[in-house]
Amino acid sequence: MDVYISGVGMTKFGRSKEPLEKMMAEAASLALKQAQVERVDAIYLGVMSVEEFVGDSNFATLLADTLGLTGIPSTRVETASSTGAGAFEAAFYAVASGHMKRVLALAGEKMTHLPTAKTTRILSEVIDRSERRYGATMPALAAMIAQKYAREFHLSPLKLEDILAQVAVKNHSNGYLNPYAQFRKIITKEDYLKSQIVSYPLRLYDCAPITDGASAIILTSQPTPIKVAGIGHATDTAAVRHRSSLTSFNSTKEAAQRAYTMARLNPSDIQFAEIHDAFTLFEIIGTEDLGFFSAGKGWKGLEEGTTHLRGRLPINPSGGLKARGHPVGASGLAQLVEIVYQLSGEAGGERQLERAEIGLAQSIGGLANNTLVTILERADRKRILREGWSPDYHPEISLSKKSTASPPSEGVGILETFTTLYTTPEGFLSPLTLGFVRTKGGEMVMACNPDYRSPKELKMGQKVYLRIREGLYVFEKLSFLNRLKYWIKGPPKSP
Amino acid sequence: MDVYISGVGMTKFGRSKEPLEKMMAEAASLALKQAQVERVDAIYLGVMSVEEFVGDSNFATLLADTLGLTGIPSTRVETASSTGAGAFEAAFYAVASGHMKRVLALAGEKMTHLPTAKTTRILSEVIDRSERRYGATMPALAAMIAQKYAREFHLSPLKLEDILAQVAVKNHSNGYLNPYAQFRKIITKEDYLKSQIVSYPLRLYDCAPITDGASAIILTSQPTPIKVAGIGHATDTAAVRHRSSLTSFNSTKEAAQRAYTMARLNPSDIQFAEIHDAFTLFEIIGTEDLGFFSAGKGWKGLEEGTTHLRGRLPINPSGGLKARGHPVGASGLAQLVEIVYQLSGEAGGERQLERAEIGLAQSIGGLANNTLVTILERADRKRILREGWSPDYHPEISLSKKSTASPPSEGVGILETFTTLYTTPEGFLSPLTLGFVRTKGGEMVMACNPDYRSPKELKMGQKVYLRIREGLYVFEKLSFLNRLKYWIKGPPKSP
After folding, report:
1. Strand partners, A273
2. What is the dihedral of CA A166, A170, A176, A179, to 10 degrees?
3. What one-character DSSP code corresponds to residue A342?
4. In this predicted model, what pLDDT tens digit does every residue of A119-142 receive, in sequence order?
5. What is the ipTM, given to two decimal places?
6. Which CATH architecture has domain B4-112+208-378?
7. How close A492 gets to chain B, by Cα (Å)?
8. Average pLDDT over residues B483-494
9. Residues of B with CB below 8 A from A61's CB?
10. CB within 8 A of A271, min separation 6: which ones?
11. Phi, psi at A115, each rounded to 5°
């Protein structure tokens, strides 16, 4: 059964004094009002870490009650930071099954009321335990990916910096036009360069902010002008180091393939997209993974203006997670709200796109662990080639490299990528240098070295020596002295 | 599209040394093996408070990875203590939509590794904030419901005690036969009476235990001998005191009505059922709400042996939450696993029921806030009257009594029900007496009085005086002295 959208709503993102359930009720009321209905057959509720952020569980009940919809089935859905898109997907299947006529997908998160250290700790729980114990945060892992991207595609540190700044500048410029955005200020490259380094090479302006907000969509089996064309969903390894590629996300590619196939569409059909720019580089990687640009070329699309608001393929007209803000549970659904605004010509002012008949949203859960791709289109769009559709999206899915062997012992390895983390989580001294080291056996391990106080001391691809200290891998450069010791005495035995 | 079951699995419930993801993987492997498949199109994962119990979020990803199913869509679903049934429902709609051919519903919880006080705190987060702040726990609310039930249906304290003991004795007797049960010991009424009072009148043997465990089911669009006949889901008010009836649960009735309607079945068609006996009385109330017995008569069905293993309508052949154990996220799915065992004749030994062609499970989330009713049947069952089905289940749904007026001020009220809680949560002195007081305006408020150290000092229906102390309602008996003061000086002004 085909699924349509009859109403959307969202709160202004930012810092809110309202309790979470009030914010969510506000978004839901707007959507119900637009859909001109008072009741729905079910609620699918997206909240990511509500138990820890606000101290309540049983939130699906609380929302049904707050909305005055007591009795109606209400189910909480969670897929880490893609939760809002996950709630939409669950709602989609409920309507597509024919058992439900009209359902509410409702998503939100309240984060700004807690101290940043606590929020960081809660957000870090999405990271695989084996990497989290080194002090890895989301920005640290994203920074290691950024370094690797620059090396793989031969971008100098200055060039990488320039590309990342361009993403931030573009998305702030779009957010300036969006009344729902947390940041409505235009920034320049100079502003970007002035922002502090969170985890080298990523700056504060590379990272989506901490935000309160809620978003809502009514899905229905009754035809409306906006149709759900396709949904795809895919996971990837929990640990980032187990992936064979760090510069492209399998979960995006598999999800996109499923969404394009369900929609019988190709990347060239997409007119605009909302991309999960939790970190600036993720926008670039996203546009490559989705088939808009080839690998390592996404930044050119940005540089040439293709992804700008007036370009051929506007990316993040809303301002993205970067400028609209990122209430983790709500973002995935807010992206779809923006697409509906654009498709219905309601985005308003300069933000309204001229070509807006078909839009795509990509929402990443965790560090690209659990990703959803959703395509919405105008129901009146002419689909001349529908019958004759043939897929032209054939992404390369790289297999994971998780080994079932026992963990590697001490020895020489290659430093594949690294970062120096300045905003460390509780219990870790700043700065903290973290790296992925490939061992002789080909396995990738995470390792740390709190002695390297600057990223300047290291470079990717160099040989390092891995030791095990208190159950953690610690890496150090193979200095002349270290090499000599190694040559004379042989490698130290693992404990 | 019709939905069938091709495989089930569960771990032995109890105390486990394995991490949660390993237990869940074990249950999933059994289900996949029985279904003779290696892959599924999606995973729907039920865990209730995994962030707080084990300190990880992003659990849907972790499980896909642990199962070696990286890439497959994985979505976490949560509806408080009915979470396992909620995961099954989401999986059902995914298959029913026609978009997925085969999905895994997988549920689990790990609870025994934490101190009981911490576990109690986590479990209490399902309770509405306005009631939780008085120190109310799940057993305390269930105890107030039990008191009210006894009063409403004219059961003496001794009679109530006898009925509750019978539920515990029956379910332990069934659990004794279940190799997956946490408690495999037969208990007597004397054992029951020796167990300590948790919250008057409920004893330890009235409450489901703290348990580790996991359960799994494969749902498929391909016909198999077991079919999903109907699913219903409903919520009720977050706060228990806002309900117009405390002795019957609207959420069960609305969910049952939806499930019976989808299945085109009536209560009299059901041959056996798994009921959410988180507290012994809930089994009695459940059998009434589901239409098996009329209100206030469920205990007679038990007393007459109807709900015993060899009775006409066996209830909780698995031993129920009481004896099989209650890993909160897993229980709702484990009930369905038991029904599949029975329907396929695989329950084994004395536990196998003779009439097992159609079974029902009722799973309660929170304090009957979010309930699911699921009916499974043998696909080869003769349904002679299918075409001519007419519903004979017409439950009385009582409206909630939430007032939007400002909270009642101090004054005289009626003590509707009360309990003395001995196992108090952190920060509350034991014993703690809690009650629901109906004000003159007809509103129900929760109130406490730490001075009453024994339930013997109070009785339901008596007049009490409500005061407000430090933002909480405190009630005290209208003694002769209090009455005199009240008559001479008028009611004290609210602060």
Report:
1. A315, A360
2. -130
3. H
4. 988 999 999 999 999 999 999 999
5. 0.96
6. 3-Layer(aba) Sandwich (3.40)
7. 33
8. 59
9. 79-80, 235-236, 238, 365-366, 369-370
10. A313, A353, A355, A356, A357, A358, A359
11. -60, 145
Supply the pLDDT for residue A494: 41
Among candidates A55, A254, A365 on the partner chain, residue whose Cβ is nearest the Cβ of B58 = A365
Residue A429 CB neighbours (<10 A): 8
Q: State pLDDT tens for residues B309-321.
A: 999 999 999 999 9
The per-residue pLDDT for range B101-151, each reduced to its tens digit, is 999 999 999 999 999 888 988 999 999 999 999 999 999 999 999 999 999
Asked if A89's CB is within 8 angstroms of B93's CB, the reply is: no
Bridge partners, residue B131, by sequence: none
> Nearest-CA distance from B262 to chain A in Å?
9
Q: Domain boundaries in chain B? A: 4-112+208-378
- What pLDDT, in 10s, does the model give residues B434-452? 999 999 988 999 999 988 8
Closest CA to B153 of B303, B305, B248, B295: B295
Say whether pLDDT at A491 is over 60.
Answer: no
Which residue intervals of A183-292 are DSSP H helices? Answer: 189-194, 250-263, 280-289
Q: Write down the pLDDT at residue A389.
A: 85
Question: φ and ψ at A140, to 5 degrees?
Answer: -65, -45
Question: Is B75's CB within 8 Å of A65's CB?
Answer: no
Read off the tokens for B346. Answer: 């695989």
List pLDDT tens digits, range A165-220: 999 999 999 999 999 999 999 999 999 999 999 999 999 999 999 999 999 999 99
pLDDT by residue (tens digit) across A256-315?
A: 999 999 999 999 999 999 999 999 999 999 999 999 999 999 999 999 999 999 999 999
Instruction: Mark A334-363 as b/e (b = at least 16 C-beta within 10 Å).
Output: bbbbbbbbbbbeebeeebbbeebbbbbbbb
CB A133, CB A432: distance < 8 Å: no
In this structure, what token pair is assigned to residue B443? 């509103």
Q: What is the pLDDT of residue A495?
A: 37
Partners of residue A49 in chain B, C-beta under 8 Å: 51, 57
Chain B partners within 8 Å of A64 (Cβ) = 235
Gyration radius of chain A's alpha carbons = 23
Indicate the SS3 state at residue A26: helix
Tokens matching residue A462: 């160099």
Contact in structure between B295 and B376 (CB atoms under 8 Å): no
β-strand B102-109 against B226-235: which pairing, if any? unpaired
Euclidean distance between the first and final Cα of chain B, in Å?
61
Q: How far apart are CA A310 and CA A313, in angstroms?
A: 8
List the structure tokens of A19: 């309790």
Residues 6+ apart with CB under 8 A from B426: B117, B121
Average pLDDT over residues B462-491: 81
C-alpha neighbours within 13 Å on the C-beta side of residue A66: 23
Residues from chain A that touch B245, judged by Cβ atoms under 8 A, are none
Is residue A440 exposed (0-12), middle (13-18) or buried (19+ Cβ within 10 Å)? exposed
**Inter-chain touch A79–B74, beta carbons under 8 Å:** yes
8 Å CB contact of A370 and B58:
yes
Residue B53: count of CB within 10 angstroms of its CB: 25
Strands B432-439 and B411-421: antiparallel
> In the predicted model, is pLDDT for residue B470 greater than 50?
yes
Q: Does domain A411-489 have CATH number 2.40.50.840?
A: yes
Amino acid type, A426: E
Give alpha helix (H) positions in B311-457: 320-324, 331-343
Both tokens of A303, joined, read 């540089």
> Rounded mean pLDDT of A365-377?
98
Instruction: Tell me: pLDDT of B495 over 60.
Output: no
What is the per-residue pLDDT for A383?
A: 74
> Is the preceding omega at residue A431 within 30 degrees of 0, hence cis?
yes
